[in-house]
UniProtKB/TrEMBL annotation:
It comes from Friedmanniomyces simplex. One of its GO terms (biological process) is cellular response to oxidative stress. Its cofactor is Zn(2+). It comes from the Eukaryota. This is Carbonic anhydrase.
Amino acid sequence: MFLQRAASQCLRKAGPSNSAFQQALESNQRWAAETAKTDAHFFPTSAQGQSPAILWIGCSDSRVPETTVLGLKPGDVFTHRNIANIVSPTDLSLLSVVEFSVFHLKVKHIVVCGHSKCGGVAGCLANGKLGGPLDIWLQPLRALREKHAGELKGMEVEGQKTFMSKANVQQGVEVMKRIPTVIDAMKERGLQVHGLVYDLASGKLEDVDCDEQANVAALREAAFERK
């Protein structure tokens, strides 16, 4: 009741400049009412706790909401999103999300997902100054571009973007597999790490090849496993 009253007060105070926000609150009220009507147990069950099977590492892009594109519901996916879905071993926010979801919630799958028409990918290919912290944040993408310069040289621009989106996902999966908590979970209970790319034009997810030879996995485990 408190939240409903607060939402109603916000709706009354919202003016023309807040129309998008007002519409969002009104949509929430309709969604909550319809969900409670069709599934009376949904909200009471959700309030008791969460047990998602999937940890989603995605881009902050507003066109790629993980629960929607997967056709799932609130509570099914634990989420971390940032600009260009970069997986950095020094990102404390990401590492905290991984620790909580893998160690405490015991997710069964980790998904690193990129997407087509990614502004971060386009920015790292264009050599333009993005300003502020964005240029620093996207350094891993620029380093990836440098690494694959030979392969990118003969491609059209759209082909370069597709290549970089997939390469970024593959690198994210590699970094994820070097996080000690993930290594332990993969070894002890079969946690799986996947790479995907979402196509904005079709709404479909494409599996990115992140397979590796057994000896590569063994070398990584030997180098990063905690004793």
